[in-house]
Design goal:
By secondary structure, the chain is mostly helical. It has 5 helices and no strands. Helix 1 crosses helix 3, helix 1 crosses helix 5 and helix 4 packs antiparallel against helix 5. The longest helix is centred in the first third of the chain and has 30 residues. The chain is elongated and about 45 Å long.
Amino acid sequence: MKNKELITGIVVGIIATIIGTCIYLTYLSLSRDIAFGALLEREFRYGGISADIAWGTALNFIAFYGFLKLNKEERAKGVLIVTVIIAVCVMTHRLLS
């Protein structure tokens, strides 16, 4: 049962990161008056996508504390695992590019 809760937390963490990154990129595209696709292409080309993903993980904090508030520690642990993995990937990308 604990394994299922951990996997649920991991999935929620990944989905929250994707949604948060899309919200952040939409905000950037609207504030800079650039099409979403053009902004996404530019971010990939110039290596700014890692910063966008880092901003997108902000929703993971909401999911993490929400699970803690509901006493779902295993799910919160899954969200934390995803957040740490994304942080390591973003840091590696920033150091190598």
